[in-house]
Amino acid sequence: MDQRPIGVFDSGLGGLTALRELRRILPGEELVYFGDTGRVPYGTKGKETILHYACQDVSFLRTFDPKAIVVACGTVSANALEELQRENDLPIFAVVTPAARAAVESTRNKRVGLIGTSASIRSGAYEREMARLDPGVRVTARACPLFVPLVENGRFRPGDRVAELVVEEYLTPIKDAGVDTLVLGCTHYPLLMDTIRSFMGPNVTLIDTGAVCANHAADTLRERGLLAQREKGSYRCFVSDSIEDFTHLASIFLGEPLEGEVERVEIWRY
Ligand code: DGL
User: Fold this and answer.
1) Residue 120: CB within 6 Å of ligand 1?
2) pLDDT tens digits, 102-128
3) Helix or strand or coil: residue 179?
4) Torsion of CA 125, 198, 254, 100, to 10 degrees
5) SS3 assignment, position 12
């Protein structure tokens, strides 16, 4: 048993999709969320910058003495995980491996689509992991740089003509490749799930990276006897930019009203 909190971070709002799942499956845990809203998006940045930001995000979360950290960001997971794990002596969970495993287990025709930020797709991390798990899987990958700004601006619902047009533009080659599974390789993308599903059709399985990462972290903590024992957990949210903007959209990501006050952190100090 370990009563300490679990730290969770992303470049912005996207990681709340993992926080939401963690709250659902581990209701007794205390969670500390950091969204680096002052520096989002990470997905258009180079590897060095992503690593620098990720190290600061982890340093901030470590001030809460967490028992583990969940990197609820495809971009950081694909570009900085090894360094973060090397430099921190606590379990750090990320999205690439559990998402790749879920895709390989789900596909029947061995054709998998992959979408993510430019930095995630450029890294090749998801493809490497899927090839390691099953060399027979063919992956059609596409960077979708407009998805994060759409989601951060609340433009993701079915019926939103801009969102539908961008989904069609990015996903047409993936649909044409005949995939039966699509990895949403960025934790912002589950917000676009309904719009993506109506374009791809009901026979394509969509992998929600935030949710699979949360489940992987929960299973591992359980196996190691590190879960907390309390009836009702809680969470706190920190951001590096406007609290109002975050609060407004966060409840949509979480699927419930935001609990407590959001606090602002000067992340460049860490
Ligand atoms: N939510 C993030 C990811 O999973 C990052 C999006 C961004 O900052 O570009 O990749």
Assistant:
1) yes
2) 999 999 999 999 999 999 999 999 999
3) coil
4) -20
5) coil
